[in-house]
Design brief:
By secondary structure, the protein is of the alpha/beta class. The chain is built from nine helices and 16 strands. The protein has two domains: 77 residues, Immunoglobulin-like; 214 residues, SGNH hydrolase (Rossmann fold), CATH 3.40.50. Strands 2, 5, 7, 8 and 16 form a five-stranded mixed sheet that branches. Strands 12-9-13-14-15 form a five-stranded parallel sheet, sandwiched between helices. The protein has a two-stranded antiparallel sheet with strand order 1-4. Helix 3 packs across helix 9, helix 4 packs parallel to helix 5 and helix 5 packs parallel to helix 6.
Length: 345
């Protein structure tokens, strides 16, 4: 074989060897046609829960929990977030909740739903507290010879606070017309003009302690005390009848039992006989039932807690006692005064 033929044969062999190398390299890289990068899953999608509506909410708002949104697609991990978060306190009205799903490729999807809270409002908004020094807010203490009137801790003030908390922004007002040292015999003469001036929706009556001043401890069965007890019941009935007169037409009338005396020794001792209080309350309950008005009965709640609820003179109330009194009136008012839904945006 000549030199030229050898060179040509070598060239053909090299060409064949190159083809084999190229084929091997192609096989090592995956073989076949180039498939390109692995495609991403579909972008994330998110579905929010249905709108939520809650009626009869009291106070300025309410905590609301809702189900988590449902996501599909996306590159793991897919995270979700909502604002406001589940369990937040939502205000009265409609609040939009926005939810977002995000995947590892920084793609996102959003959805939203509404949380609607409807409040209740009382159909009576003005209440007049009619009574003596217990209503006024005296606490049984004196400074410089003058009796202390603790208005911030009086039951009408505490009742106002309960209204403000549970029915905010609704203009409910409690006016305090307690007058220390006045008997029912005297006070009944002032009730008509007071109602003319105030035109309340509701009348709150807690009165009679001064009339029972003739009933110190141990005298509950005396003729004088018995007469005073009957007078208290009769005068309370007269108050109810005055409030019902067409010219006053008070829609809601609440009459309270009297609170029990505090423990001895009281300083100074202004206690009324415990038995006289019990007899008076029996007469009040019977009168309230016959007149068809609303009974407020704090007396049972005080029994066993006299040292905690009654101040040092054995008659007037500590702040804790006024809390009990206010709560009893509040519960009675909510029980009988109709409430309407109030929708506020």
């Amino acid at each position: 074989m000549g030199f030229t033929q050898v060179r040509r044969r070598f060239a053909r062999q090299m060409l064949a060897l190159g083809a084999v190398v190229v084929a091997a390299g192609t096989a090592a890289c995956g073989g076949g046609p180039d498939s390109g990068p692995t495609p991403l899953p579909a972008a994330p999608a998110i579905t929010c829960p249905s709108d939520i509506s809650t009626k009869g909410v009291t106070g300025g708002g309410q905590a609301v929990s809702y189900p988590a949104p449902v996501t599909t697609g996306g590159s793991a991990p897919v995270t979700t977030s909502c604002s406001p978060v589940s369990g937040s306190t939502f205000p009265i009205g409609t609040t939009a909740v926005s939810c977002t799903a995000r995947d590892s490729a920084a793609r996102q999807a959003t959805c939203s739903f509404a949380v609607t809270l409807s409040a209740t409002t009382l159909t009576a908004t003005k209440f007049l507290a009619f009574g003596d020094s217990v209503t006024e807010g005296q606490n049984g203490r004196t400074i410089g010879g003058f009796r202390v009137v603790d208005v911030p801790n009086s039951y009408p003030t505490k009742l106002q606070g309960l209204f403000d908390f549970e029915f905010p922004g609704q203009g409910i007002v409690v006016t305090n017309h307690g007058q220390g040292g006045v008997t029912l015999e005297e006070a009944v003469k002032t009730l008509g003009p007071m109602l003319d001036a105030e035109h309340p929706d509701g009348l709150l009556i807690l009165h009679g302690y001064n009339d029972l001043g003739v009933c110190p401890p141990g005298s509950g069965n005396s003729p004088t005390c018995k007469t005073a007890i009957q007078s208290v019941v009769n005068k309370l009935r007269e108050c109810v009848q005055i409030a019902r007169e067409p010219k006053h037409a008070v829609r809601y009338i609440f009459v309270s039992t009297l609170t029990p005396p505090g423990p001895a020794p009281a300083t100074p001792d202004r206690r009324r006989d415990a038995g006289a209080i019990t007899q008076t309350n029996t007469g009040i309950r019977q009168m309230v039932s016959s007149e068809g008005v609303v009974l407020v009965d704090p007396h049972p709640a005080f029994l066993g807690h006299e040292a905690e609820y009654v101040d040092i003179d054995g008659l007037h109330l500590r702040p804790a006692g006024n809390d009990v009194l206010a709560n009893n009136f509040f519960v009675a008012i909510k029980r009988v005064v109709p409430a309407n839904l109030l929708f506020r945006f």
